[in-house]
Structure formats: structure tokens, C-alpha cells
Amino acid sequence: MANPLQIRAFQEAEKMIEEALIRDLERIWTVIKDRPPVEASDMLQNGVIPLINKYGLMAAAVAADWYEELTGETAFLPDTYNEESWMASTRWALTPMFSKDAGETEKRAALKRLTASAVRHTRQYYRNTVDESVRRSSGTVRYARRVTGATSCDFCLMLASRGPVYGTAADAGGPSNRYHDDCDCIPVPVRGKWVMDNSERGEHWEGQDPGYDFERLYSEEYKPFHRTGDGIRDTIARKRAMKSNGGNNGGFSDGGGGNPYWMSDPDDGNLPDDYIPPLAGFEMPFTRSTRPRATYGCARHALDAHAFDAEITRDGVHFFPEWFNEIEAVIYVIDRISYLAEPKISGKTGFVFTESVQGITFQVAMRANKGVWEVRSMWPIAGDGVTISRKGKKVPV
To answer: Exposed, middle or buried, 23 (CB in 10 Å: 0-12/13-18/19+)?
Structure first.
């Protein structure tokens, strides 16, 4: 089992590596922070790449020892070098410096984002090492995602609640090895197997303990919000919506009628990470993997403004079909559209993404707010049941 001392030793070793990375990053920052934004961006992109690789390889070596100590099997060190992704993240992190009248506040924001991004990419080396080693193991090794911070987001708590289920062909390409900036989850490899029973989960784990009570998390963070047919993102969206509604389900489907059309992973992995630039020579401030995601507030705004029964405010406003009335569906469609579509420039400071999902054509709008890109809204423009305001009346598109 992974006892507290082993977990603490692993964390301390990785922490030392990250602190060294941050010190080197700050040295580069002091040199470039007062240079013109374009020049600073170019210098940082060239400077960050060797740092991430240097300290990432150290992190991977620590993880390999950690894996072998806990499982008794030989670790595998995968190739995690990803120059394009690191450069894209660096460009995104420096976006605040390109805002009009950028000053010290924007520079501090850029450094904070840059540091979080570089640490995440460095941690990915050890996370990939554990993930790939488990997948290449003898078949009796799995890993759990253990939360380690004082507070954790819904996404991480829900993944941790699943226990040691990760590292098999069944979850390949899923969210098990995806982490956000400032995420402190660690993958804990353990030996054992799942055995079917009549419990709430329908099975129980027989094997090494990953060092935390994942069954308690399952009962508190996963089971109350999961419905038949849900993917992990569906369950998370329902949990967030129920919390915002004071604990009730907001009229959501219980899954008994089959999977709604939006129950699919917005990131299906079939498209290149880089968007096609909307203009020749244009440099996108984010990629598909780093694009802004839908928030509950944004989805609530979109639904309130464009709901079938919304008050008509002006000609040209489009409204969703009557059946499209669940906040979780809005969240998924936003992320799906921004993944599938290529961006077009909208106005002076924004992008619009247009794509059809199950016969409805939607548009998603994004723009920078004080240097930070965010989803602003989403609305339908065509399809069965979509209406538009004309002279104070709703008429079919």
C-alpha cells in the first residue's frame, strides 16, 4: 500500500524539483519582463522549453522509482517532450502583457499563469510515467488519482472518488491523465482487482490501499450526482448545477430515457491541437487543449438570454428549441462547438465558433477580458425548433 510516509516523500521530492524550476523561470523573467511583448514572448518560448524538459525528466525519474517501490514492477519512461504544446501555453500565459496599457498588474498576472503552466507541464512527465507504466504492467496494477491539497475542484474529487480504476484500455484517452493548472493530484499505483458484489458501487477493491478513503468520496462526491449513461463530465456538470441550485436537480433528466445527444466527450482526440488561423499569419492565443471552457455562469447567461420562453428584447435574437432547457446541455455544447469548429474573427477582440450538433447549428463567442480569454455566450442560429425575434414576435428561422 501507499502509506503516508511514502506519499509525503514522493511529494517532497517533486516539490524540490518544482521549486528549482520556478527559480530558473523567475531568473528568465527578470531579464525579459520589461521588453516589448512580442520579443518577451519569443524569448520565453525558447527559454521555457529546455527548463520543462530538464526538470520534467527529473520528475519522471522520481516517479519511476516511486512506481517500482509500490508495485515491484519495472517502470516505463515515456517520451513526454511536447514543444508545440509548451510554446502554445507560454503564448497563452503572456496574453495579459498584450492588453492595452499593460502595466505591473498584467505582468504579475502573466508570470503567475506562466508559472502554473510550466509546473503543470513538468508534472505531466511524472504523471505520464505512472500512467504508461501501469498500462504496460502485468495486468494487476491500476492507479488512483489522490487529491492532496486543502481544497480540490469538483473534477479532481470526482476522479479521486473512482479509486484505483485508471490505467486500462477502457479508460485510454479519457480524463484519467488530464490535469489542470495548479492541480495537486498525484497518481498512486497499486496492485489488486475489482470484484463484483451487491454494494452501492456494484463492486469492491481487493488489493493495496492507495492511501485515502475513496469509498467515502464515492458516496459523497460521485454517487449522488451520477445518472445511468453519464460520462464523467456529465456527472460533474450535474453536481455543479445542483450545488448552484441549492442541492436540487434543477429539473435534469435522470438518464432513464436514454442518453441525451450532448453526452459525449467534447475532446474526442481526433483533431489537431492547433486551430487553423482565421487569417494568414495570425497567431491564435490558445489551442484546443488550452481553449477557454464553459462556466456555469456563462451557460446560465446563454440559457436565460436565448431560452424558448425568454423575453424578446430586439429583432435578430435567436432562441433555443423548447426542449433545449438544461444547463448541463449548454455547458457541453459550448465545449463541443469550440473543440470541433475553427475560429473566425468577430469584431476587434473576439472569436466566434460555428458548428452543428444533432441538427442544431450553434455559435460560441469568446473574447479577452483584461487579457484573459473567456467564453462570453452561445446561441442557436438554425435548426428544427430554433426561432428568431422579428417585430416583437418569434418566428421560425
So the answer is: exposed
Residues paired with residue 357 on neighbouring β-strands, in sequence order: 360
Distance CA 370, CA 348 (A): 14
Residue (of 195, 207, 366, 394) closest to 290 by Cα position: 366
Burial of 138 (0-12, 13-18, 19+ CB in 10 A): exposed
Question: Within its chain, how far is the Cα of 294 from the centroid?
Answer: 10
Hey, how many other C-beta atoms are within 10 angstroms of the C-beta on 202?
9
- For CA atoms 36, 42, 47, 52, the dihedral sign is positive
DSSP 8-state code for residue 145: E
Nine cell digits for residue 391: 417585430
Judged by DSSP in three states, 388 sits in strand
What is the Cα gyration radius of the chain? 23
- Exposed (0-12), middle (13-18) or buried (19+): which is 163, by Cβ within 10 Å? buried
Q: Distance between CA 249 and CA 303 in Å, rounded?
A: 16
Please give the helix or strand (H or E) that residue 186 lies within, else none: strand 186-196
Residue type, 69: E
Amino acid at 215: E
The predicted-structure confidence for 231-271, as pLDDT tens digits, reads as follows: 676 777 777 766 655 544 333 333 333 333 344 445 555 68
Q: Which of left, alpha, beta for 250 (phi over 0: left; psi -120 to 50: alpha)?
A: left
**pTM flag (> 0.70):** no
- At residue 367, φ and ψ (nearest 5 deg) are -155, 165
* Residues 157 and 147 sit within 8 Å (Cβ to Cβ): yes
